[in-house]
C-alpha cells in the first residue's frame, strides 16, 4: 500500500515532466510545477527544484543534494505546503528568502487561501531562512520551544554565512517563531487537522515533526535523511530513540527533510538507522579503546563511505559530535 | 620543516565556499578567511609581534626534530580542533624541559596554553582541543631549565571557532559544570610513563557568542588554570584561556607509583574552583 502510494506520486511527477517538458525547457529546464506561476517559479528557483503533489493537497519541493551555493539559493532541503478548506500551512519555508519566495509563488499558483501557518522543523538555515518570504502573509510562525534560544544563539551566525554566499536580499531576515510547541499541538486548516510534535534532542535539540492526519503522512523534518548524508547536531542516542518511536507508527508515507519527496515508512528509515547505529557502536568502541577524537574521525563507520551523498563533507564532523557525546557516558 | 609553515597553501582561491548546515564549525572553516589567508609575510609579522609580546624578544631556536605540533590540516570543526604537542620524540632537547607554550597566532587571545611540568610528568605527549578563529599559524615553544627557547610552527585552515555559537551540549555542560573524568591508556606500572586523559565539564564561554535578541554577548566564563598532582607531587600546571574548547579534554603523560591519588584542581574566570581526586590505579568496586 505504501509502495503503491509513492509509485503513484512518481508516476504523477513523470507525467508532469512530460507535459511541461517543453515549457520547462524554455524556462530553463527547472520547473515541473504549478502552471501559471511556472515562469516566475523558474525565474526565482534554481536547478533541481521540483514541486510534487505527493498526496491530495500535500505538495513537496525537492531540495538539491548539494551544499548551499550562489547557484542553488540554498534550496537544499525539502519544502512542503498543505492546503486545507480555509487555510494553507507551510512546513519548512526553505533555505533563503529567495527559496521561500519561489515556494510562495508555487502556493499562489494553486490557491488564494491565506497562508496562516509557517512551521519551521528546526534551526538549520536550509530549513528556516525561507520564512522571510512569508512575512507579508502575517502567518503564525511555529517552532519547537527550543527553536527560539537556538535561533538566538546561531541565527546571526548562519545569516552572515548565507549572506556571503547569496547576498543580503536573497538571504532574508532571521524570523523567530511567534508560537512554540512544548510537546504537542493540533492545528486545523479547515477539515484538515495537522498534529505537531516537539521531539527530545535528536538531529538537533529543537526538532518538530508534523502529521497530516487526513493523508496519514509524516513530515519528519531532518529526523529523516534519505540518500543525503545525515548531520548530527543534537544527540546520537536521542536520535536513535526518536526514530525507534516513530517506527512504531504506521504512516502511508513520510516526507523527509532531505531526499525524495515521499518515501515508504518505515523502510526509508533503514539506511539512516544503520548509519547512526554504526556511528554509535564504533565511536563508543573508539572511546573505550582510547582512540583519540582525531584518529576516530578516520576509523569510525568507514563502511558507510560511498553510501551517502556528501559523506566526506559531514562524516568527520558527525564522528566528532558523537565522540563528544559518548565520552561522557 | 621547523619554523617553516607546514600548511599547503595551494588551491585556496579555487576552493568552493561551502555552507554546511548547522555545523557551525565546518561551516565556518569552509569560509575563506579574509585576513592573512596565504600571506606568509603577514603571518611572519604576526609572529614577530607575538614573540615580542609573549617572550620579550628572547632568542628562539629552531625546535625542528625536538618538538612537533600535530593537527588536521583543515579542521572539521573549528570549535574543537584536536592538537597534539610532542617533545623529544625525535631528538632530545639539549637540556631538561621546564615548560611548553602553545600559541594560536590569529586567535583573539593567542596564548592558548602554558604548561609547566613537575617531577611526576612525562611531557613527551600532550593533547588538547582548541578553538581556532581564523586561518593561522600555531606555535609550540619549549622552554628548558637553562632558559633557552625552541619553537616550531604549523599552519591550520580553520575559522570561526571562537565566535561559533554554543553547541547543544553547552546547557548540559553548565548543569554538570566541574564534573571530571579520568581515563588511563593502560595499566599503571610503577615508574613506567602512562598516558591519562582528563575531561572537565565546562562550557568555557569565551564571551564571543552573541545573543541575537538582546545583542549582548554570553558572558565569558572559562577555565584559567588546571593543576594535576600525583601523590602530592606536581605533574603539570597549565595556564589557559578562551582558546580551549568547551568541555576541555586534555591528555598527558605521568609517572605512576604502585598506587596513589591523582588530584585535579581547575579554576575558572569566575573564581570557581573545581577539585577532584582519582585513585590510580583505579579502585575496583
CATH architecture of the largest domain in chain A: 4-Layer Sandwich
User: How many DSSP-defined strands of chain B?
Assistant: 15
Indicate the overall shape of chain A. Answer: globular
If you average the pLDDT of chain B, what whole number results?
A: 83
Q: Which CATH top level class of chain B fits?
A: Mainly Beta
- How many domains of chain B? The number is 1
Distance between termini of chain A?
A: 42 Å
Helicity level of chain A, as a percent range? 25-40%
Class inferred from helices and paired strands of chain A: alpha/beta
Strand content of chain A: 15-25%
Greatest interface (CB-CB under 8 A), with counts per chain: A-B, 47 and 47 residues
Structure explained in plain terms:
The complex is a heterodimer of chains A (329) and B (285). By secondary structure, chain A is of the alpha/beta class. Chain A folds into 2 domains: 2-265, 4-Layer Sandwich (Metallo-beta-lactamase, Chain A); 268-329. Chain A has 11 helices and 12 strands. Chain A has helices at 2-19, 21-27, 38-44, 97-108, 125-128, 147-166, 168-171, 236-247, 270-288, 293-299, 311-326; strands at residues 51-55, 58-61, 79-83, 88-91, 115-119, 140-144, 179-181, 184-188, 193-198, 208-212, 217-225, 253-258. The termini of chain A are far apart. The model of chain A is unreliable at 1-48 (pLDDT under 50). Chain B is mainly beta and 285 residues long. Chain B contains 3 helices and 15 strands. Chain B has helices spanning 24-30, 40-55, 169-175; strands at residues 60-62, 67-70, 81-87, 97-104, 111-117, 121-130, 136-144, 149-156, 180-184, 194-200, 223-230, 233-240, 249-254, 260-268, 273-280. Mean pLDDT of chain B is 83; it is low at 1-37. At the A-B interface, helix 6, helix 10 and helix 11 of A face helix 1 and strand 10 of B.
Amino acid at each position: 500500500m505504501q509502495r503503491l502510494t509513492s509509485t503513484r506520486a512518481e508516476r504523477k511527477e513523470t507525467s508532469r515532466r512530460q507535459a511541461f517538458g517543453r515549457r520547462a525547457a524554455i524556462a530553463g529546464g527547472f520547473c515541473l510545477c504549478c502552471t501559471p506561476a511556472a515562469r516566475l517559479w523558474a525565474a526565482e528557483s534554481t536547478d533541481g527544484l521540483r514541486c510534487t503533489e505527493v498526496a491530495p493537497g500535500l505538495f513537496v519541493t525537492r531540495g538539491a543534494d548539494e551544499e548551499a551555493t550562489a547557484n542553488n539559493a540554498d534550496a537544499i532541503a525539502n519544502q512542503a505546503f498543505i492546503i486545507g478548506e480555509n487555510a494553507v500551512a507551510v512546513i519548512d519555508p526553505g533555505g533563503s528568502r529567495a527559496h521561500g519566495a519561489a515556494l510562495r509563488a508555487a502556493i499562489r499558483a494553486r490557491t488564494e487561501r491565506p497562508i496562516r501557518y509557517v512551521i519551521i522543523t528546526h534551526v538549520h538555515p536550509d530549513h528556516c531562512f525561507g520564512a522571510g518570504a512569508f512575512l507579508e502573509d502575517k502567518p503564525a510562525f511555529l517552532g519547537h520551544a527550543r527553536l527560539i534560544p537556538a535561533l538566538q544563539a546561531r541565527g546571526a551566525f548562519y545569516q552572515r554565512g548565507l549572506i556571503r554566499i547569496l547576498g543580503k536580499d536573497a538571504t532574508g531576515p532571521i524570523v523567530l517563531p511567534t508560537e512554540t510547541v512544548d510537546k504537542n499541538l493540533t492545528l486545523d486548516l479547515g477539515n484538515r487537522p495537522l498534529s505537531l510534535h516537539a521531539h527530545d534532542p535528536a538531529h538537533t535539540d529543537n526538532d518538530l515533526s508534523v502529521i497530516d492526519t487526513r493523508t496519514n503522512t509524516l513530515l519528519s523534518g531532518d529526523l529523516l535523511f534519505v540518500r543525503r548524508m545525515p548531520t548530527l547536531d543534537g544527540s546520537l542516542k536521542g536520535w536513535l530513540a526518536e526514530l525507534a518511536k516513530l517506527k512504531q507508527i504506521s504512516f502511508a508515507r513520510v516526507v523527509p527533510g532531505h531526499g525524495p519527496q515521499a518515501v515508504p515508512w518505515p523502510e526509508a528509515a533503514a539506511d539512516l538507522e544503520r548509519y547512526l547505529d554504526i556511528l554509535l557502536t564504533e565511536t563508543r568502541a573508539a572511546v573505550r579503546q582510547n582512540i583519540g577524537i582525531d584518529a576516530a574521525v578516520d576509523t569510525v563507520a568507514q563502511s558507510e563511505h560511498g553510501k551517502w551523498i556528501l559523506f566526506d563533507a559531514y562524516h568527520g564532523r558527525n564522528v566528532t559530535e558523537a565522540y563528544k557525546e559518548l565520552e561522557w557516558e | 620543516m621547523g619554523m617553516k609553515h607546514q600548511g599547503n597553501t595551494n588551491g585556496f582561491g579555487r576552493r568552493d565556499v561551502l555552507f554546511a548546515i548547522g555545523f557551525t564549525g565546518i561551516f565556518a572553516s569552509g569560509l575563506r578567511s579574509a585576513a592573512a589567508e596565504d600571506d606568509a609575510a603577514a603571518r611572519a609579522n604576526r609572529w614577530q609581534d607575538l614573540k615580542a609580546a609573549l617572550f620579550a624578544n628572547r632568542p628562539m631556536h629552531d625546535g625542528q626534530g625536538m618538538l612537533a605540533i600535530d593537527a588536521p590540516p583543515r579542521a572539521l570543526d573549528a570549535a574543537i580542533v584536536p592538537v597534539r604537542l610532542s617533545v623529544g620524540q625525535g631528538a632530545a632537547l639539549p637540556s631538561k624541559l621546564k615548560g611548553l607554550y602553545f600559541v594560536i597566532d590569529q586567535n583573539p587571545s593567542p596564548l592558548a596554553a602554558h604548561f609547566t611540568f613537575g617531577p611526576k610528568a612525562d611531557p613527551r605527549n600532550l593533547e588538547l582541543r582548541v578553538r581556532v578563529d581564523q586561518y593561522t599559524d600555531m606555535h609550540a615553544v619549549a622552554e628548558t631549565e637553562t632558559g633557552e627557547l625552541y619553537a616550531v610552527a604549523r599552519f591550520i585552515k580553520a575559522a570561526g571557532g571562537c565566535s561559533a555559537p554554543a553547541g547543544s551540549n553547552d546547557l548540559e555542560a553548565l548543569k554538570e559544570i566541574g564534573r571530571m573524568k579520568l581515563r588511563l591508556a593502560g595499566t599503571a606500572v610503577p615508574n613506567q610513563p602512562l598516558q591519562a586523559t582528563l575531561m572537565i565539564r565546562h562550557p568555557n564561554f569565551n564571551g564571543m557568542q552573541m545573543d541575537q535578541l538582546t545583542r549582548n554577548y554570553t558572558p565569558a566564563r572559562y577555565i584559567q588554570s588546571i593543576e594535576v598532582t600525583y601523590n602530592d607531587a606536581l605533574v603539570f600546571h597549565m595556564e589557559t584561556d578562551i582558546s580551549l574548547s568547551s568541555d576541555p579534554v586534555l591528555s598527558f603523560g605521568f609517572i605512576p607509583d604502585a598506587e596513589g591519588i591523582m588530584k585535579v584542581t581547575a579554576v575558572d574566570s569566575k573564581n570557581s574552583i573545581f577539585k577532584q581526586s582519582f585513585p590510580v590505579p583505579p579502585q575496583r568496586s
